[in-house]
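Q: what does this look like with pyridoxal-5'-phosphate bound?
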Amino acid sequence: MRYEADERGYFGETWGGRFMPEALVKALDELTVAWQDAMADADFVAEFERVLRDYAGTPSRLYHAERLSAQVGARVLLKREDLNHTGAHKIRNVMGQALLTKRMGKTRVIAETGAGQHGVASATAAAWFDLDCTVYMGAVDTRRQALNVARMQLLGAKVVPVESGSATLKDAINEALRDWVASVDHTAYLFGTAAGPHPFPSMVRDFCRGIGDEAREQCLEQYGVLPDAVAACVGGGSNAIGLFTAFLEDEGVEIHGFEPGGDGVETGRHAATIHAGEAGVLHGARTYVLQDEDGQTVESHSISAGLDYPGVGPQHSWLAASGRAHYTPITDTQAMDAMALLSRTEGIIPAIESAHAVAGALDVARRLGEEKGPDATVIINLSGRGDKDMGTAIEWFGLGDAEGEAEPVVATAPGEEA
Amino acid sequence: MASTTTAFEKARAEDRAALIGYLPAGFPSVDGSIAALRTMVEAGCDAIEIGLPYSDPVMDGPTIQAAAQQALDAGTRTRDVIDVVQAVAETGVPTLVMTYWNPVERYGVERWATDLAGAGGAGLITPDITPDHGGEWVEAADAHDLDKVFLVAPSSTDERIAMTAAASRGFVYAAAVMGVTGARDATSDLAGPLVQRVRATGDIPVAVGIGVSNGDQAAEVAGYADGVIVGSAFVRALLDHPGDEAAGLAALRALTEDLAGGVRRG
Ligand SMILES: Cc1ncc(COP(=O)(O)O)c(C=O)c1O
């Protein structure tokens, strides 16, 4: 099967493409050429790898979570992207795009962000590369991710709250696109996920694919086998495609994406785009979209700002439609339970985004453990750390009361009440 | 319904530019938008663009977005847009729909083309579809004898301008500024050269949009373009008179007359 996009940016001839105002086409064409040239230039690739290694701290560890493994009866390996500089996988994408921005001679970057991790990474790259930086963020997200707003500001970025629509990630993307139409001669749009018009889905994937390339090599080296399954959370899908890409041709490796199920898909309050969406066009790509009968985008809901998006990267739509990967919704409750579980068993507080992957992957691990025994191996992408989500965790679990002891959070299997 | 070309031919015969007015369907209500658009026709618009309100209008500025949101909040559906087209097309003035792509894809491209043509619509203006990614629409439009209005921008390469002009029918929409829709104090100095670049490719009419809000600006643009497109200023005239339909329509009529005078001076 062909997993790459064709020249015009279509995966499987249907998904992706470029549904964009003519005003941006020249910039997208220039970006496509610049990116392809850069990736074919050994010096650029070496520089990208050097920056990631020396500054961002890659390769990230592949860590055997032994206590978690014992609980589920299979080998659970965590790809520790949470240990990267700025605390998420997003630094890989941003360092790649910022390096490209420099190469193209542009002086300003804009970005959109949901969880704030992409914004923090963009602000960091802008500081490091001496670029002007503006970050658009849904007003709802600026509130639930206040810590990351402060981080971006400290790093010198301007954070613009977006009030329109659902005031979350989708609207931040709209606003960033509007900025870009007016500033495209000197401004690069550092797109935060593997969605949007061609070439972003392919370019962002390429900058993130180190996650899977490293994990595959580490797994073979450390355990002498390929994993039986790999798992990641899916918002737009950058961390997921970054992990999945290395394993697409390994037919024996199951590929699992976990989408935000919010209050439960049946309630309508969720962001499980592939599971519950329909093919359509959003933000320049044909992909699965949460939409009504008239093609109006339906507002998404997730406890996780980084996954709260009614679209998804088009390559994921193709992987789902072709059957190569499986996408399953995880509710807010399941994700928060998994956040507590990982914290209690391994001493690792994950981002709520990543906790979706943990919740879903543990079910996969349990099944594989039963089928294949304790050597069954599952790699979970721990895309980011949970510091930014402490406000949400405090509220959800009722933490932070120094007087009494906080209600002990019971580590339960996903789906059960905490 | 004749192609929008007829409006340009009529204007050319009078040695002036055509005036094209835009409002979103369903704003301030479905009936309200019909009354408003008919007023614009009576007061001098040569062609009408009806916006299909959409949740994620990437090219629209705050004024048009606010109006479209009001229409959506009031429950405007794609089907209503067809009804508005029908009511306006009955006046005999070429009536196009300006729409982002997803609602059309969702409605069904073939069904959309059939219904639009059936309502007397002249064609479609597609801000997020370029000819090279719009194969499905090009086919359906050709099959139903509908206008395909594609946009060019100051950033367009000569090659893309030639490709776009060749694929368009009715007219070519020149987005005069790099930026979203909205009234501006000064017209763009990018528009004139852009119109010239389109003209160099053949004789399809070129209309300039984005930023024009009064008769003097319309006169200026009419000096070098075949058509002047006005949107935000009309929307503003209605937004400024919330709940008072008569006052809104009077403001709309006065603005249209000012603009129609402008294209005759240019
Ligand atoms: C830690 C973390 N993981 C995952 C995501 C979701 O993005 P994507 O699906 O592009 O990986 C985000 C987005 O902000 C994030 O911060």
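The longest strand of chain B covers residues 18-24. Residues 245-265 of chain B form the longest helix (21 residues).
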